[in-house]
Amino acid sequence: MGAVHAKSADNAGEVGGGLFEFEEPIELEEPMPKPQIKLEGVRARVDRVHVDGLNRTKDDIIRSTVDDLFQATDFEDVILRAHKVRRALDSMGCFREIGVFIDVSSGPDATPEGLEVTFQVKELSRVVGGINTTVSENEGNLVLGVKLPNVCGRGERVAAEYSVGHRASSNFSVAAAKPFPHRPRAPTATATLYQQNHEYPWSGYKLLDRGLLLDLAFHTSAATKHNLQWEGLVRDTSVINKSTSFRVRESSGPQMKSVVRHIVSVDHRDEAVFPTRGTWVQFSSEVAGLGGGVAHLKTELNVQANVRVLDDVVSFRAFFFFSMCRKIR
């Protein structure tokens, strides 16, 4: 725990007359060296695991998550496995706060080397909403969003978003996601139904997209993520005014498109939002033409490198983008 050394207030006037006027220097005690404890050789096992604060989350998914703690053989292993379980609970998207407490086991069934691990959690609200603004394509947008986290008690979530621009653009999407944290590679299945309406006055046309996106995301390593997607949409192009070119008029009208896409990303950044070091690489390849009237091959490469220039001042970011598309018919 450490020690606190204090002097009695009775002898405070013997050193100096004022609060900061000292006639002789005070010799401060040398700091006591902190003892180093090797946790690797300390025998320990987990007798019981408690999870406090559960309301909607089902017991079976929690039980399968914390089972890994009972395989610990020493105190260091307990700490590492507890941290791993905490990350697994956080990745479920059911809780906003997760605390971990480790104590000596007590009770009639306690063992001499036993420990009790307690997770104190706070679940997310049933409904989470937000309002924000974005700027894109020379237009400001107002975005309204609502989320239903942990709908069925096993990490399922539903999200709806509606955005409207100060011109004529409007977007609407509804997405439902189901994670499988205890399956190999921790896959997550997502289905999104969307509608996008944009105007491009500089080209003389407006575009209306209605589609369905199915996505299966999984990890092959801690830094490598894969997305297998199928997207089917109906794209309706219409003319804005009489001055629109004939090339645009020829391609106007509804078209159906079916796309199969594979995205692989390798992320070695320290932070995903404001990184200061590390690299991020994403490679995307898609094939269109398995149904519908549009057929093409498309590949994209995104590379990001972050280098700190000055400590706590600024970070330099180099970004590279490459795209290649080939029309089949």
TrEMBL record:
GO terms for cellular component: mitochondrial outer membrane. Residues 150-313 form the Bacterial surface antigen (D15) domain. The lineage of its organism: Eukaryota, Metazoa, Ecdysozoa, Arthropoda, Hexapoda. It is a multi-pass membrane protein. Its main location: mitochondrion. Pfam families: Omp85. It is found in: Mitochondrion outer membrane. InterPro entries: Bac_surfAg_D15, D15-like. This is Bacterial surface antigen (D15) domain-containing protein. Belongs to the SAM50/omp85 family. Keywords: Membrane, Transmembrane, Transmembrane beta strand. It comes from the Eukaryota. GO terms for biological process: mitochondrial respiratory chain complex assembly; protein insertion into mitochondrial outer membrane.
